[in-house]
Amino acid sequence: MMPAMKFQRVLLKLSGEALMGEQGYGIDPSVLQYIADEVVQVHRLGVQVAIVIGGGNILRGKTAASAGMDRAQADYMGMLATVINALALQDALEHAGLTTRLQTGIEMPAVAEPFIRRRAIRHLEKERVVILAAGTGNPYFTTDTAAALRAVELNCQVLLKATRVDGVYDADPRRDSHARRFRELDYMRALNMGLAVMDSTSLSLCKDNHLPIFVFDLSASGTVAAIVQGQHQGTLIHAMPEDVNAIWAD
């Protein structure tokens, strides 16, 4: 008998940078395969999975804008970069045996469905992995904000933010050996500390809708599966202390 899951529907946020591995640019096929294997683990537990992916391995709108490009134009280019990543991830997931649907915030019917909330929910109910690309479809919003928005729209129970470190720290652990990792913290503290985890818009959206966030290390195999089963992994960002005991099965 399959054990009860702490979460039945989750949204996984992947950065574009995660896909490039050690290459410095583009997409590393071995990373795609690794991510696909991680998603398969969770899907086999009976958990419904939606994924939002960034495009920073190809082009980041804000960076291009800082170099003199029109910000809106740069952001639209960044959205297209996320679609490239989403198509690559879709291929890897389907080679791993999963059924997927790709939906985009900007309509491009030759390669994807437009994002339609009720259709996306129906796909999840039919055990399809839903990949969401092109952000919100609007400039000036990050893919973190898109992830928070889609998670709320799709009635996800948690937002899983994959990073290169094993949680939220009070300083950069790659530069400061004394950096302290938080086991958990509330939204307001995360906002007030200005932690470089997610932008303030996405954090505020999660706070207003009581959507918990797990920040974890993507490279630690099995972490997503452990989180959905209620195990203590990474850092939990939440609304109130009682949420911690409700979520973690210590």
Order of helices and strands: EHHEHHEEHEHEEEEHHEHEH
Number of helices: 10
Helix content: 40-55%
Question: CATH H-level name... which superfamily?
Answer: Acetylglutamate kinase-like
Structural class: alpha/beta
Question: Can you tell me the CATH class?
Answer: Alpha Beta
Termini separation:
22 Å
Side by side, the strands of the main sheet go 4-3-5-2-1-6-10-11-9
Strand content: 15-25%
CA-based gyration radius: 17 Å
pLDDT averaged over residues: 91
Question: Which architecture does the CATH hierarchy give at level 2?
Answer: 3-Layer(aba) Sandwich
Number of domains: 1
Main beta-sheet strand count, sense and barrel state: 9 strands, mixed
Q: What is the CATH fold-level name?
A: Carbamate kinase
**Which spans have pLDDT < 50 for at least 5 consecutive residues?**
none
Number of strands: 11
Shape: globular
